[in-house]
Amino acid sequence: MGDTEEAKLQLLIEWYLDMLPTTFGNPLWFSEDELLHLRGTTLFKATELQRKSLLSLYDDKAKELVKKFLILDGDLERANSIFWTRALSIPLPRSFVFPQIQDEDNKEALNPESADGDNGKKLEASFSSVQETVWVEGLVPGIDFCNHDLKAAATWEVDGTGSATGVPFSMYLLSVEEACLQTGKEISISYGNKGNEELLYLYGFVTDDNPNDYIMLHYPAGAIKDVPFSQTKLQLLEAQKAEMRCLLSKTLLDHGFFSKEKETRDKVKETEIVNYSWSGNRKTPSYLNNLVFPEEFLTCLRTIAMNEDEIFRVSSLLEELVDSEGDRQPSDIEVRAAVWEACGDSGALQLLIDLLNTRMMDLEEGSGTEDSDTELLEKIRCYKNITPAEGKSNGTNEASKNQEMSRNKWASIVYRRGQKQLTRQFLKEAGHALQLALSESN
């Protein structure tokens, strides 16, 4: 590269750095007062942990990456936010991301000293690894200035061969519809199907009534030691490959008991389950097709909720199975089947309701109910509706001044209200499922 090209590149880098923002809306930048509006949510604890671990994370992993930013600004938080609020998840071939490893694999695969059989296997593995996709978080100057929109005007593509841009593995914007691109109109892209929790944590904004919202639910790992027969249950959890946490997305409600989309609900493919009833005493639940909770998580809750008699029943069923088919270990599916046969769904659903109620109490502590959040958003003008002229208060209109709300506070209330709404809706689903389970002796 000549001196002229290097000078141009340096100018482009400086121009790009000068255009990067200096303020951000993600919780890392919230004031202590603004952060209190997230209390009871997952983001509150996540932000506290992020603030505490940022310095060590920088020293261990990100120092070289953000050194340029720190030299220019001396601002650790800004460097972190610049990357994570603008980074894209880019799909690239493994051979492009790890070229040195790929070259070594190829040389080893083609080593003439290798046995013919081994050489063929290595060569096949080498070629298959070239096709493997690796997702890499990275900044793409230009595209990273595009804002998010569910109805994006453009999408971005990776030009693997360079046929469109002239540079292999470069990226470019592609219009969704030609009519959408108008002079003076903002070009937006989609950041993906992300809920408000992820949008606020990573990018510093939320969307009202986000269709991709979700809540995280988990059974505390530390609480298992206080459960009766904890060691036996831990072994069963491991044998079943059970999940102690789950994401409950709003879209799951589309085929729940109270979905208004009856046609969609009726077309939902019935969950694939094993014929659990080895003894014929327990029937497949009639409500299975409308149960919105992940089976892996219900498996965990069934196991934790089991009483002593049910544990012995599981042991007997598994011994019967193994003895009838010779000396072998039961599979995870068979263990799940035995647990369900022994205890059904009632205990799991009651424990699920307890977890959801606890989550709701955490969300409402200090901020009130879902209706309280709605009332706040209705009474106080949203920051998006405050024009520059309205925002300049001369101090005489105290009522108007008190109505103003910071962008961060508004985003926090929208996010936490969405969490309360989903928790309430899933509580309703779990309660109805429990009633059905009890009526069917499940």
Describe this structure in words.
- With 442 residues, the chain is mostly helical.
- Among the domains are: 1-92, no CATH class; 202-261 and 272-386 and 405-441, set domain protein methyltransferase, domain 2, CATH 3.90.1420.10.
- Helices cover 52% and strands 8% of the residues.
- The strands form three sheets. Strands 1-2 form a two-stranded antiparallel ribbon. Strands 3-4 form a two-stranded antiparallel sheet. It has a two-stranded antiparallel sheet with strand order 5-6.
- The chain starts with a helix and ends with a helix.
- One of its GO terms (biological process) is methylation.
- InterPro entries: Rubisco_LSMT_subst-bd_sf (IPR036464), SET_dom_sf (IPR046341), SETD3_SETD6_MTase (IPR050600).
Sheet with most strands: strand arrangement: 1-2
| Beta strands, count | 6
Uncertain segments are: 119-130, 263-276, 382-402
Residue-averaged pLDDT? 79
Main CATH class of the domain at 202-261 and 272-386 and 405-441 = Alpha Beta
CATH topology of the domain at 202-261 and 272-386 and 405-441: set domain protein methyltransferase, domain 2
Mind describing the biggest β-sheet? Answer: 2 strands, antiparallel
Evaluate the radius of gyration.
Answer: 27 Å
Count, helices:
18
H/E element sequence: HHHHEHHHEEEHEHEHHHHHHHHH
Strand content: 5-15%
Structural class, by secondary structure, is mainly alpha
**CATH homologous superfamily name of the domain at 202-261 and 272-386 and 405-441?**
Rubisco LSMT, substrate-binding domain
The CATH architecture of the domain at 202-261 and 272-386 and 405-441 can be named as Alpha-Beta Complex
Shape: globular
- State the separation between the terminal residues, measured CA to CA: 73 Å
Helix content: 40-55%
Protein name: SET domain-containing protein
GO molecular function: protein-lysine N-methyltransferase activity
Keywords: Methyltransferase, S-adenosyl-L-methionine, Transferase
InterPro entries: Rubisco_LSMT_subst-bd_sf, SET_dom_sf, SETD3_SETD6_MTase
